[in-house]
Amino acid sequence: MPAKIDYRRCIGCKRCYNLCPMDIFTIDDKTGLPISTYEEECWHCGICWMECPKRAIDIKLPASFW
Fold it and tell me: How many structural domains comprise the chain?
């Protein structure tokens, strides 16, 4: 399961968008908040989670990782 964004916590800093090595995020034109658009491309590296100042991103590793 790719990165999920908790929009109640997200402040729109765009760190996830700017730092994701796979560019899975896009920015919603209306809200200015990130969207996990290309979920199938997520490597589950955790950069978005580590760099989010509000911990608004949750990453669940797929069962195949275990």
Answer: 1
